[in-house]
Design goal:
about 350 residues, alpha/beta, Alpha-Beta Plaits, six-stranded mixed sheet, four-stranded antiparallel sheet, elongated, binds adenosine-5'-diphosphate, binds magnesium ion
Length: about 350
């Protein structure tokens, strides 16, 4: 639904060039909620602003719903007619809401419809529907200053939906909100995604947002996307920084001649008593060194760091058992010089073999 190819953005300011986007290939599928996460300055806002041509990319292409936006004339407020039409089908929600304080809630929602030339009556009907949808049916005549942050963002969302977009872009929409309000706004985005089939591309610096609402995610660093995939794919990718950030596990081995593994549970495996089966089947004592369990997009997932007695070679069969249960298993390499890490151990869970093994 949204594809960027080799997208770059270089800002020229004060005689200096600053590369904010450095060859970004993004692919957001129709109907998914896709999160781009990264630290401040990573280029997230530049990316989202290039997707709807608020900023014109320096090079590369942006396709939204099959249309090449980079081929259309203009940018920002000087967009040509075709670009304006295309942009009206892309809703945008901002961190600081960007509501007009002199207009009522209803008039704020009607604004994009005025620009599109809808009649007064059609605008009023549509705005009423949208305000109902975001839970603000009774606030139509209020002014933004009379609303809480969460309510303002709901107005922002209603306004973004006015053009009946297929795509909603959200730049840190919940970053100015407290955790409880964040949750309710994310729930609203989720329900819009489900009920309207809206594709959502959201930008955030908060891992919790990704965990709560996203189907897929990408990690952005210094203008580049360094990892991307569905949350399941990321969880199944050994050494994924995103997976580790979503489910941080830690824990030190208790001594030499121990095997430490990180086990990732998702899908069915999350609800089965796999660890106790392992213990009973092989009659071994298992220590749990660390664990992180959570619900991601409505499903239980988690990671557990466990320790088995004996060196890696002695645990090939139990580890095979875990993989047969559909679990992702990564060996935690002991510190160099640790005698427990035998010569025949696998080469530190190098990506591909692990993934293939896990898929068996
Ligand atoms: N209009 C601009 N002019 C010059 N530099 C900019 C402009 N907008 C963003 N930048 C720079 O581009 C980099 C990426 O910024 P941004 O896309 O806002 O990142 P993020 O949203 O991830 O914090 C930063 O170094 C920022 O200072
Ligand atoms: Mg930003």
């Amino acid at each position: 639904m949204i594809t960027t190819q080799d997208l770059t953005k270089v800002y020229r300011s004060g005689g200096r060039d600053l590369t904010a986007l450095d060859g970004v290939d993004l692919h957001v599928r129709e109907g998914e909620v896709f999160g781009v996460i990264g630290q401040s300055g990573a280029g997230k806002s530049s990316l989202i602003r290039c997707v709807n041509m608020l900023e014109r990319p320096t090079s590369g292409t942006v396709l939204v719903d099959g249309q090449d936006l980079t081929a259309l004339q203009g940018r920002g407020s000087r967009a040509g007619r075709e670009l304006r039409a295309a942009r009206s089908r892309i809703g945008m929600v901002f961190q600081h809401f960007n509501l007009l304080s002199s207009r009522t809630v209803r008039d704020n929602v009607e604004l994009p419809l005025e620009i599109l030339g809808h009649s007064r009556r059609a605008r009023a009907t549509k705005a009423g529907e949208l305000l109902e949808r975001v839970g603000l049916g009774d606030k139509a005549n209020a002014y933004p200053a009379q609303l809480s942050g969460g309510q303002k963002q709901r107005v922002g969302i209603a306004r973004a939906l006015a053009g009946e977009p297929k795509v909603l872009l959200s730049d840190e929409a919940t970053s100015a909100l407290d955790p409880e309000t964040t949750r309710s706004v994310l729930e609203l985005l989720r329900s819009l995604n489900r009920e309207l089939g809206l594709t959502v591309l959201l930008i955030t610096h908060e891992m919790d947002v990704v965990k709560t609402v996203c189907d897929s995610a990408a990690l952005m660093e210094k203008g580049r996307i360094t990892e991307s995939g569905t949350l399941d794919e990321l969880l199944a990718t050994p050494h994924s920084a995103l997976a580790a950030a979503l489910f941080p596990v830690s824990g030190e081995r208790s001594g030499p001649a121990r095997t430490v593994i990180d086990v990732t549970f998702h899908g069915d495996s999350a609800s089965r008593p796999v660890i106790s089966q392992l213990s009973r089947t092989y009659n071994i004592d298992i220590s749990i060194l660390g664990a992180a369990m959570d619900t991601v997009a409505g499903r239980q997932v988690g990671r557990m760091r466990i320790e088995l007695p004996g060196r890696y070679e002695e645990n090939v069969v139990p580890i095979g058992f875990l993989r047969e249960q559909g679990l992702q298993v990564e060996t935690v390499r002991p510190e160099a010089g640790d005698a427990s890490f035998g010569k025949s151990a696998p080469p530190a869970t190098s990506g591909k073999t692990e993934k293939q093994e896990a898929g068996r």
